């Protein structure tokens, strides 16, 4: 028999608790605070002032026990808390998959979206509870919370995909999502 993960991952049931944003059995939990998002927000002055004063948690990612190794299919739930920095909505760091592989995001609670950028074209896909966002191979992706409650989604992705955060810092994300005078708007991402 071919084995992929070490130790081998046996067939198993994973329970998903949408309100807790958790998967059981679980693997790692990642917490990102505002200070972890250096270079992400357009207004670097407001960004520095806000993380120096309160440094709130922007998002957390709880993974299942399936590891990120080739041929496995890991999953995680991301919870982005509501908020903004200089009017720009709370977001994930955003990354490109070094091994170009597709990914799906399935909306669990709240309202959010995925900004996607392939280096030329840019897209914004809205996600609500029950919708699936498809991220094709070669498209960098960043999630944002566009509502006033926590936005949660399940991600399922090939274990070989990887996370390249440097690509986004170098190439940008194509678009930015702001809340201005109560209106949600998309702006071009100027590098
Ligand atoms: O694999 C994914 O695309 C997601 O699970 C993300 O890693 C998660 O949403 C957090 O985003 P980022 O990795 O850009 O910080
Ligand atoms: Mn990804």
Give the termini separation.
50 Å
Main beta-sheet strand count, sense and barrel state: 6 strands, antiparallel
Category by helix and strand content: mainly beta
Strand content: 35-45%
Instruction: Count the beta strands.
Output: 15
Return Rg in Å: 17 Å
Q: Secondary-structure element sequence?
A: EEEHEEEEEEEEEEHEE
Instruction: Tell me which oligomeric state these chains represent.
Output: single chain
Give a written overview of the molecule:
This protein is mainly beta and 191 residues long. 8% of the residues lie in helices and 41% in strands. The protein is built from two helices and 15 strands. The protein has helices spanning 44-53, 166-171; strands at 15-17, 22-24, 26-33, 57-64, 75-80, 84-85, 88-89, 103-109, 112-117, 122-127, 132-135, 140-145, 151-156, 175-180, 183-188. Strands 3-4-5-13-8-11 form a six-stranded antiparallel β-sheet, with no helix packed on it. It has a three-stranded antiparallel β-sheet with strand order 10-9-12, with no helix packed on it. Strands 1-2 form a two-stranded antiparallel ribbon. A hairpin with a 2-residue loop joins strand 14 and strand 15 (183-188). The longest helix has 10 residues, at 44-53. The radius of gyration is 17 Å and the shape is globular. The termini are far apart. The relative contact order is 0.19. Manganese (II) ion is lined by residues 95, 97, 103, 141, 157. The site of 5-phosphoarabinonic acid has 12 residues, from strand 5.
């Amino acid at each position: 028999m071919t084995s992929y993960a070490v130790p081998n991952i046996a067939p198993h049931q994973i329970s998903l608790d949408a309100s807790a944003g958790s998967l059981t059995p679980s693997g790692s939990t990642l917490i990102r605070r505002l200070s972890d998002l250096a270079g992400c927000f357009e207004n670097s002055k407001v960004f520095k002032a806000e993380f120096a004063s309160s440094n709130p948690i922007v998002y957390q990612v709880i993974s299942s026990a399936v590891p990120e190794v080739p041929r496995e299919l890991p999953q995680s739930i991301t919870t982005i808390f509501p908020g903004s920095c200089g009017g720009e909505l709370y977001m994930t760091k955003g990354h490109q998959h070094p091994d170009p592989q597709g990914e799906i995001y399935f909306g669990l609670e709240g309202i959010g979206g995925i900004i996607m950028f392939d280096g030329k074209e840019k897209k914004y896909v809205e996600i609500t509870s029950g919708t699936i966002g498809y991220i094709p191979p070669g498209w960098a992706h960043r999630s944002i919370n566009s509502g006033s409650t926590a936005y949660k989604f399940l991600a399922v992705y090939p274990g070989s995909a990887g996370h390249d955060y440097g690509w986004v810092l170098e190439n940008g994300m194509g678009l930015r999502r702001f809340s201005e005078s109560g209106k949600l708007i998309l702006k071009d991402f100027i590098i």
